[in-house]
Fold:
Amino acid sequence: GMKIEGYYGRDGYALIRELIPRAVAEQFMTMVKRRKLPTGVVPAAPDDLDPGVLTRNVFELYGNDLPPMKTFLWGLTPAMEQVTGRRLVPTYDYFRIYRDGDLCHVHRDRPACEHSMSLTLAYSDGKPWPLELGRAGWDGPKDIKTRDFGSEPAASLAMEVGDAVAYRGTDHRHGRTTPNPNRWSAHLFLHWVDPEGPHRAEAFDGK
Structure:
């Protein structure tokens, strides 16, 4: 079962080992492929993807595009509540495939991502590609997007398939500053807000 490494309440992030079984991750990937997804990538609409965060367009699907993704978001809410130590309501989630050499610039997330989770579903070549988080949280630099963390100390969290990182997406700068070592990798990004908090209007993505 899941093992939590780190203290979310104190640090604003934690690594969750074996959040989902590898077999579930594999089954999810099979389901995605069955939808006869286009080969290559689909450029995301400018509204969906801030072009500054990614080094090039990636293939992505939102929860509404693939119903089981909503199930994941709802189903993982109790686990996320356990990690964060607070009651949460889901906002939205999306699935993304990154390719060889991709980077993700260091950034903070929009209000709907108050409490976020990055779940690793597949690595084509089995090479972990770490998610990095600025340790200073909201006290860190206010840059919108940068190539690296500058002088801010950062944690590098390497996930295996089925592992996840929970983090305060609006507070902590995060990104992947080392190029993806796999031909491709697949990830699910899930987001929640505190129903009593300042971003509560984002619940269920404001719908």
